[in-house]
Amino acid sequence: MKISNETKIGSLTAISIVLLVLGFNFLKGKTFFGKSHNLFAKYTNVQGLAASNPVMINGLQVGSVYSITTDKNMKEILVNMNITKDVNIPVNSVATIKTSLLGNISIEIQLGDATAYIPRNGTIATQATIGIFNEVVSQFTPVLNKLGSAVNSIDSVLHSVNSILDPSARNNIHATLANLNQTTAHLIGASASLQTLLNTQTGALAGTLNNLNSFTSNLDKNSGKITNLVGNLDKTATNLSELDLQKTLTVLNSTIGDLKSTIGKLNTTTGTAGLLLNDTKLYNNLTATANKLNLLIDDLKTNPKRYINISVFGKKNTSPGLTVPLPDTVNAPYLKQ
């Protein structure tokens, strides 16, 4: 069977048209042999989004923009996305339009945390973006505000400096600089004095160090004596620690207690010593006895014959005895009863 040229041309034309449609759809992101589904999003401003722009989730392309349609009022733009990856998109996910620094536009899907997923041919929530230029401007706005505040502060400082630098203030600054020069001169003098003090040959510090060396040398020479002294102190401390101080203190406390008891008895009228010290009757009796003894001695001196008679033929002394002791105010003054 012979095929005519017209049939061949018609067949090639039909195949070309089919390949053209398939290629056009493929370029738009439409696949015919894999599993894909549509996802719709509604925007008021698509910021230059066009068909075949990628659809990204976490930096991975999961599809592309298939078509963009709108109504006559241009109040709502419907974007049809062809999702070629088999992914689950939660119902609270959000689709935003992102523009890179190179001008590439894509749809970024931010996955939510819901457990329910958007069905095939469903609609995803959208969020308006301000665009990359406006975003950059918004980032620089705080910096510009701070820069303006800094400029205002510098201006205030300059005004303050201008108000300070009047003629009197300049004179004060000159005086301050003069005082600073004088202080520097004093510091130079003090540095020279310090250098003299720190001189290793004639400085006072060198003499002090020499004295310290001599002192340490003497300590080294007398280290044996110091050792013996420390040893003797150690022995003395050992002997003191070996003494039975507790027993001595116990005996001393007992003696003090006995002494207190004795003194207490002397302060009372219950014992002989207490009566001797505290009873006036005993004192009066002793005084009366002493007077009577003095009277007896005086009578013996005055009339000895009344008591001793050695004469055989002598006359007996019949004179009455003394009733009052003889006065003796120098050696033994008497008390009258």
Question: Any idea of the CATH class of the domain at 35-129?
Answer: Mainly Beta
Mean pLDDT: 78
How many extended strands? 7
Helix content: 40-55%
Which term fits the overall shape? elongated
Query: What is the name of the CATH topology of the domain at 35-129?
Result: Elongation Factor Tu (Ef-tu), domain 3
| CATH architecture term of the domain at 35-129 | Beta Barrel
Number of helices: 8
Q: Which features characterize this protein?
A:
alpha/beta, Elongation Factor Tu (Ef-tu), domain 3, 337 residues, single chain, elongated
Secondary-structure map with pairings?
Blueprint: H1 5-27, E1 37-43, E2 54-57, E3 60-70, E4 77-83, E5 94-99, E6 105-110, E7 122-126, H2 132-164, H3 167-197, H4 204-221, H5 223-242, H6 245-266, H7 272-278, H8 280-302
Parallel strand pairs: 1-7, 2-6, 5-7
Antiparallel strand pairs: 1-4, 2-3, 3-4, 5-6
How would you concisely characterize the structure shown here?
By secondary structure, this protein is α/β, with parallel strands linked by helices. Among the domains are: 1-30; 35-129, Beta Barrel (Elongation Factor Tu (Ef-tu), domain 3), CATH 2.40.30; 134-164.
Q: Could you describe the 3D structure shown?
A:
With 337 residues, this protein is α/β, with parallel strands linked by helices. Among the domains are: 1-30; 35-129, Elongation Factor Tu (Ef-tu), domain 3 (Beta Barrel); 134-164. Helix content is 53%, strand content 14%. It has helices at 5-27, 132-164, 167-197, 204-221, 223-242, 245-266, 272-278, 280-302; strands at residues 37-43, 54-57, 60-70, 77-83, 94-99, 105-110, 122-126. The chain has a seven-stranded mixed beta barrel with strand order 1-4-3-2-6-5-7. A hairpin with a 5-residue loop joins strand 5 (94-99) and strand 6.
